[in-house]
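Invent a record, attention on tokens:
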Amino acid sequence: MSNPPKTVLHATEEEAEAIREAVRSADPKSLGPGRALADLSHVPGLVELLADEEVSGPIYDLPRPITPESVTRWVAERQAERLAGEGLLFVTLDARGKVAGYSHIAVWPERSAAELAGAIRADLQGQGQGGVGMARSFAWMFETLGVRLICLTAALDNVRSQKGIDAAGFRRMGEREVVRPDGTVRPSVYWELTREEWVKRHRL
């Protein structure tokens, strides 16, 4: 499961409720073409996507093993998160309507914070789409959801993701141990970025 950020922010009741409402009413189309809220109709495509260890291997909060049953539960849990205003699961569809990627945003409204995880299909990796999509997602999380802090993790050997996160301006804040759904622990590199840091970076 996702871990809240190391830095503790305290949102007012009004701010937290505004974030929850922004999550509940989020429009996936505002993230770009081909984006949709994940529902049970996407389970077969997600199973096909995540069954590839090149895609799912580096991601700690996915269900294991990847099966139609485990992915169905995962999607249903993420739908419940959205209703609570505490998370979103999006899929990215290619020109043929196949699931080509996903992104999961875990949200802690009372801390004005969120975490992003996701992946794209193996044949689309290394083409620059991941970095562009991440930057768009970070801006959207700050501007549309209204959070003030984003945290990220990446496996110690996931050099490609680490470079992309560094390039986006996130601050490395050591390591943290994240717990997989099966209870095993994965040491990870840990980053944070505030809304103010993001705005300053993109106004330069």
